């Protein structure tokens, strides 16, 4: 990473890791965005998450998929459509296929950082925390408690969005990211 300032975006467990990096290098990180981040690093069954709920179902779409793909897509999709399936196939499925399951199991056995990410001084640069209202993986309720540590954070909970909110609510997601980037540029003194 060197010494240059940079922006940091973390998604899911990567959001938890990003918060740990902000604790370690607050001066170097010019802005932080968290997308469906893990709040407390505990197993899914111990998190405050809603039940999986499909708000826009497409049974014909699911019926046309092979059972394995239908299960992977269907277990997280809140908005089932040709568009969200295409994004799932392009953005999520390759990672699932390439994942080293044995390595993931070893990581999950000790995935808590040695220091609580919010145990240091407050992070006073532009931040964004975006959660899906129907995210049955990481939820949204626990994340509200982080706001005291991130006094420059915008916090959004998007309805009709689960753990893949960036393609279930793309217009809102892109608007929030652009606004966050505007705040980062404004705070850096750079002309945007």
From TrEMBL:
Q: Does the keyword Transferase apply?
A: no
Key word Nucleotidyltransferase present in the record?
A: no
Q: Which organism is it from?
A: Amycolatopsis silviterrae
Name of protein: Alpha/beta fold hydrolase
Which UniProt key words apply to this protein? Hydrolase
Q: Which Pfam families would you find in this protein's record?
A: Abhydrolase_6
- Stretches assigned to the AB hydrolase-1 domain: 4-173
Superkingdom per UniProt: Bacteria
Which SUPFAM superfamilies does the UniProt record give?
alpha/beta-Hydrolases (SSF53474)
Q: Name one GO molecular function term.
A: hydrolase activity
- Show the InterPro entries listed in the entry: AB_hydrolase_1 (IPR000073), AB_hydrolase_fold (IPR029058), AB_hydrolase_sf (IPR050266)
